[in-house]
Task: inverse folding
């Protein structure tokens, strides 16, 4: 039977990608540590260790 | 059928302090955003960096309470990612990268023309010895030599500054060098790098 499937490679631009679990863990940890403190009309960024 | 919580609800919950909502948002849009970034930069590590920077901006904006596009969370995040991709290419244009191949490495051709620490120390020592020797010269010769070598003045400028003719200035320079050589030979001083 004739081969009907394309053997051409999927173009690199179409590659399905997902961020690594380490990156997501970092973002979640950053989010937990990041705070914005408000004093009067001023906002201060704060990153807790 | 599984009920999916709307992005706007998750955003609201996150702003209200629910960290799990952020995890849900990231996981929900991870593939779309990462694929979008990768399709532009075509590099896995750069994609990862831009993805991370995108969400750092998202987190900061949401926590500051500056986000106002309720219901349009994904397009907003995509726009941030898009801007960061543009920044990435702009930065690379300013600082073009050249990566060598297996056959050719640019670092085997070009080299740093600065002296290494040892040679620099030797040069400094010679410069310092030379300045002591120059002090031994007669005043008029020393003056011309300093103006020519250290102040990089032309003989015309030296002549104007010292009130002598150019030929006299040239002669003083010549005698300064002859006398310096004599001092070096007399004292068996080695001045080489």
Result:
């Amino acid at each position: 039977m004739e081969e009907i499937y394309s053997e051409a490679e999927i173009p690199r631009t179409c590659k399905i990608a997902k961020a690594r679990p380490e990156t997501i863990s970092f973002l979640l940890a950053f989010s937990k540590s990041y705070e914005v403190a408000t004093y009067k009309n001023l906002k201060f960024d704060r990153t807790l260790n | 059928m599984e009920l999916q919580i709307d992005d706007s609800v998750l955003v609201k919950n996150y702003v209200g302090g629910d960290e799990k909502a952020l995890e849900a948002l990231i996981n929900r849009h991870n593939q779309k955003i990462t694929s979008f970034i990768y399709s532009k930069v075509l590099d896995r590590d750069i994609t990862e960096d831009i993805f991370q920077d995108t969400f750092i901006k998202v987190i900061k904006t949401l926590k500051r309470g500056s986000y106002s596009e309720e219901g349009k969370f994904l397009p907003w995040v995509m726009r941030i990612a898009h801007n960061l991709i543009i920044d990435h290419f702009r930065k690379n244009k300013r600082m073009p990268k050249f990566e060598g191949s297996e056959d050719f490495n640019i670092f085997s051709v070009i080299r740093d023309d600065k002296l290494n620490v040892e040679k620099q120390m030797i040069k400094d020592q010679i410069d310092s010895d030379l300045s002591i020797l120059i002090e031994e010269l007669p005043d008029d010769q020393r003056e011309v030599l300093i103006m020519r070598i250290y102040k990089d003045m032309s003989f015309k400028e030296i002549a104007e500054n010292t009130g002598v003719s150019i030929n006299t200035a040239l002669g003083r320079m010549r005698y300064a060098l002859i006398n310096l050589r004599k001092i070096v030979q007399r004292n068996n001083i080695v001045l080489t790098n």
